[in-house]
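Weekly puzzle thread! Below is a chain. First person to post its structure in token form gets bragging rights.
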Amino acid sequence: MNIENIKNLFEDCKFKELEKQTSKWEPFDIGFNIFSLMSDIYYRENFHSDILAESLNPNGKHGESNNFLSLFFKFIDINIDKLKINDTYNTKLSDLIIFDDIEIFREKGRIDILIFSRKGKWAIIVENKIYDAQDRKKQIQKYMEYCENENKNFANIKFEVKAIIYISRKEHNKRPDWKTLEYDEEKVSQIEERFLCIPGYNESGKDIFSWLEQCELHSKTVNSQNVFQQYKNIVKKQGVDAMSNENAEKFLNLCKEKNVCIDTLYTTIIEISNYIRTYIKKEISNFNFNLEKVNTYGSNIVYIDYKYPNQKNSIAIDIFLSSGNKNSIEYKKFSLGIFSRGNNKRNIIDILKKKNLKNIRMEGEEKIYLQISDEEEIPFIFEEKSNKYISKELNLNIYKMEGFFEKIKQILTALEVHKKNKSLEENL
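Winning reply:
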């Protein structure tokens, strides 16, 4: 393996920017979700268009009149500076909600969602590309012409297109390639004056996900709340997956640019992952604490033994390393076990009570709380099977070593494990 190439990769500013982006993201698990149970249906744009159209429809089965349409218009008006692609855009959509004849159509003139008012003679085109479907030749131009020409389906009314809302998967500034798709030049300027791009999800607070959150918050029925709560998570998952795929592609391209072999890099990372327990054992052994023993057990456990002065039995602390995913090589969580080498609950309780540790409070014999700082208290629950008090999982990436080892030192300090540089009298 060429270490110099890998060093160059890690020092590259593009890698550092990529690391900054990916460090913020976690894989998103939507859990028990009715939409995800529909197999691959929720990956289809027609599925999303059906839900969005029904939500926007003042006469929809949600029975909440124009509640969600009004929230949609307000959402766009508030975030217009981010959504518009042309400074000549000047429509305030929330002013249109006064019309009492607003209708919503699916696939009228092949338009994904068409919002219009016969009285106001205006229309809003919603083009759904939330799953990155390809743009077709002159697609939006044809939609505009459909609305603006006299049409027998609308009593020969010519509608003024107030806005063209283009829902992308995650980009704010995405639009069709007008030239490649052979749009008429004079039409392009008219389209851009009305064009708004709204991402499905991109953590900006200016995406469809954010509007769905507002819908959930302002829903008047439990049924509506549940639908929006579950559907917004589907939208979020698709956005998170898209961002993850994009970063993976950037990383692979950067490896190619820096002449780093992916297979070799992956093998090295696996080796580091396998070595991590040994490394943790070594570092904890060098702590300034009088520990009796530090060792490893199994594939993901580091244990610490310590005996308080004048105590017969040792207490032991297990550090369970966890990735949260059996296929992951990145340890992002860990949990703790506290027990006595006397191998029963009574021994550890007697030790803790005798020491009268100021940082421990007990709820009967089944639950203890360890105060490791002014801001943090770790709960432990007794587990009969293992004869240990087991903590909740603590979210801390173990590869961020300083933070991880600082946490272990806080735990040892809270348990009043005595330091090497203190006298025995000070520790008693």
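Puzzle host: Confirmed. Bonus trivia for everyone else. The chain has two domains: 8-252, 276-427.
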